[in-house]
Amino acid sequence: MNVLIVESNPDLGRVWKRHLERHGAEVTLVAGQEAAILALYGQDFEIIVLDLVLETGSALAVADFASYRRPEARVIFVTNTTFFSDGSIFAHSPNACAYVQSETPPEDLAAMVEHYAAGR
Q1: What is the pLDDT of residues 22-41, one digit of tens each?
Q2: DSSP E strands: which ranges in the chain?
Q3: Distance CA 102, CA 73 (A)
């Protein structure tokens, strides 16, 4: 299972990365849009864990590029805001499979990653 994490908070990104690696995932961690696009050029990912509010760049641009470059990749959006809390993210991003809060326990996030990667 190959996972791309796009998270501006390095501490949070490392927690998720370590947890997913303990579950056997190959994980690439990047902090913003440009690095995510470069990663998507170079590797195939089953799952993208994508912070909806990036410090540099746009999460929706990353998701849109992924739907073009890696159409099989599913996106789990994470956020610490109420933006898109009405579920409209699924209308904006056809590759979205989940929308969760940043405070979601890492073991729950790992279970979602495994679930959606298996369904691919």
Answers
A1: 999 999 999 999 999 999 99
A2: 2-6, 26-30, 47-51, 74-79, 96-101
A3: 20
